[in-house]
Design a protein that fits this description.
The protein is an alpha/beta fold and 338 residues long. The protein has a single domain, classed as Rossmann fold (3-Layer(aba) Sandwich), CATH 3.40.50.1110. Helix content is 51%, strand content 8%. It has 16 helices and 5 strands. A 5-stranded parallel beta sheet has the order 2-1-3-4-5, sandwiched between helices. Helix 6 packs parallel to helix 12 and helix 12 runs parallel beside helix 14. The longest helix has 30 residues. The N and C termini lie far apart (77 Å).
Amino acid sequence: MKTLRLIFRRLLQTGLFGLLFLLVLEWAYRQQWMDFYTNEFHFLNPVEVREGNPNQPTLMVFGDSFTANPHNYSRALAPALPGWRIINHGVPGIGARQMQHIAQNRLPDSRVDAVVVQLYVGNDLLDQCPPVDWARQNWLRNGYHLASRYFQVVPFLNYRMGQWKNTLNPDSTIQNYFSAEDQFAVERYNPRIRRMLREHPNYLQESIALTEQAKAIHREMCEDLSTWMAPLPDSVPVLVVVIPHAIQVQSRYQQNFEQLGAVWEGNTNTQLLEYPFIEATKRFFEAKKQIRVVNPLNQFQQNDTFGHPLYLPNDPHLSPLGQELLAKIILNAWEEIP
């Protein structure tokens, strides 16, 4: 009996210590006591950009893996904006919640003359509120998602662990789906996306069409963005660029995703130019005159062809052609700013 009590006491002490450590780490992450994404910042911004002329007009770019891609659209913006310093704050795997902390940490000490914020219809709502489904997901994933809802440092730790595993196994074939020189194949598609579709086969429809639950999550996402945008002077224009999912662009992408397990309920038209996600985003920010929501869908639909795809064949990210077109769309929106 004494042994059981001792074991219980030790487990309780370990659990309390672990919870206390997690709370301290969470507070440090939210307050950004240190820059948790220094490596990404240095990778995306050469020293001549980071330490450039502070008197230069400065464009700040925020986003997830679309923005953190080595060949991202901000690289294509630079030649068209001579005299501007473009600083990329993109980080793979983040959403509006994490973006808020990054921006609040980095903006106060920086010159800011313009801002681009990149959103993605495909998974931003899942990142904002990770789904819990005991019928489809195992207990470990549900536990991780529940913890991620309340502890934002948990996804960060998972992200760092993923990087560490890739470092230990540099010859892994896991990155093959990022190749633009390939053809679609279910077995070669990004395994994370295949898993997401197994667990939530209608998540794309929920995001594009904004179901009732998705509406609340979308509003929470916009409120997180608005929190760090609010202190910006009215003279600083902000472009909120909403990247559509591939299935919204061409039917062949939708057919590919159906093979991967995506389902659609009812007669949902996934290729509407003004769809609920983009409409809700525009409504949320319409009172803020300095903020303009950019919808690239029309130009994507017009320019994506079988021989010149804007998306990768085995991953939902943009191809190099897609990144170049996105840069042109941003520049056109830039020129229309009063």
